[in-house]
Amino acid sequence: MDTLATYLDDEVVWTISGPVDILPFCGQRVGKDAVMKLLVQESPAFLADRRFVPNIMLVDGNNAAVLARLTATKRGDGDAISHRIAHSIKFRREGRQIRVDH
Fold this sequence. Notes:
21% helix; alpha+beta; two-stranded antiparallel sheet; globular; 2 helices; four-stranded antiparallel sheet
């Protein structure tokens, strides 16, 4: 997670579409701190045994798309969760750093 944080822009916008009543971590996070809180605290507090398996990755210049599957177990009741995830990522180089907008 520390490595991921170095690639995120301070103003990153991270949106997870889904039913908030079933997956309370869904919604939009703005800013690196909010995204890292989601990934390090909020999502792990709700889901155990998370696995992210990328199926397809496409890269075109500074743009990338990833289609993946997330599987996990809900901590509250032990129900299994499996859903597809699509990431759209834009890379920008600023000075010596690469900026990632998700």
